[in-house]
Amino acid sequence: MKELGEIIYRKQQVVIATKHHKENVIAPIFERALEVQCFAAENFDTDLFGSFTGEFDRKDSPLETLKIKCKEAMKLTNCNVGIASEGSFGPHPYIPFACADEEWMIFMDKSNGLEIIEREISTQTNFKSAIIKSTKELSEFAERVKFPTHGLILQAFTADSMDMKKGITDQVILENHFHYLIDKYGEASVQTDMRAMFNPTRMEVIEKLANKLVNKIKSICPQCHTPGFGITHATAGLPCSLCRQETRSIISYTHTCLKCAYQKEEKYPHQKMFEDPMYCDQCNP
Fold it and tell me: Cα(108)–Cα(156) distance, rounded to whole angstroms?
């Protein structure tokens, strides 16, 4: 493993594993921060690793899929440095009744054996689906999910892929395909197109995650100077300001080096030594 003075990515080629134009937000951030030269892998079908509409099932976890996708893009382009992201949508893991966009992103440096990973969970998503039978229901759904700036998918409720239309951003096309499905099946399934190039809201989350990942790459181990010195553990127990009992709020983060395993504890990461009693299980059970 090279030392920091030698791990410089300036002018290196970095492949972005995407077919959905994620490079539009990822590339400028990495090029500005690390002075690299990013490019998207041509003829690289990321849908083969899993698609939102079910033509291809995701066989592995999002994190494993992320790594496989990045390695394959690097292999295809004979590139030693790569970036990939992977998204999932569904119920928020912590907030009841809320939908979430969970995004993972990796920066992989084959030469130095580095895999630097960040994650973002956001409620900033228009993820929705519905079974509809009328143009009124279609219009109401489209308005709720920010159509036409955000794309839609229409398909038969039978999930017949031959009758599926993706990436709809035109009102006439939307209505025509809807009437076709209604005439043939009596109802239709409509859902938001969560592919990045058809979903500006998701693209904003990916952009935020890219900035987080760049900051992590630029975080250097104090001992061996390897990039990616990041948070690996959060410790709860911030005391309540009223009763002084421990709460579930974070009191410290542990940062760990990817190379030498050096650890450093960061106390009071949110710049407060006590928690509000409203978040205390003793004062506000």
Answer: 40
Do 115 and 206 fall into the same domain? yes
The answer for residues whose C-beta is within 8 angstroms of residue 30's C-beta and 6 or more apart is 14, 36, 38, 83, 210, 214
The pLDDT tens digits for 45-72 are 887 776 666 675 677 788 999 999 999 9
Specify whether 76 is located in the same domain as 183: no
178-199 pLDDT per residue, tens: 999 999 999 999 999 999 999 9
pLDDT in tens, 265-283: 999 999 999 999 999 999 9
| 3-state class (DSSP) for residue 149 | coil
| Residues 18 and 156 placed together within one structural domain of the fold | no
Whole-model pTM: value is 0.88
**What is the Cα–Cα distance from 207 to 196, expressed in whole angstroms?**
11
Looking at residue 64, its amino acid is E
114 and 59 inside one domain: yes
Burial 108-127 (b: 16+ CB within 10 A, else e): bbeebebebbbebebeebbb
Domain that holds residue 38: 13-125+199-218
Q: Are residues 35 and 107 in the same domain?
A: yes
Helix axes 23-34, 200-217, angle to 10 degrees: 20
**Sign of the C-alpha dihedral, residues 64, 18, 153, 100?**
positive
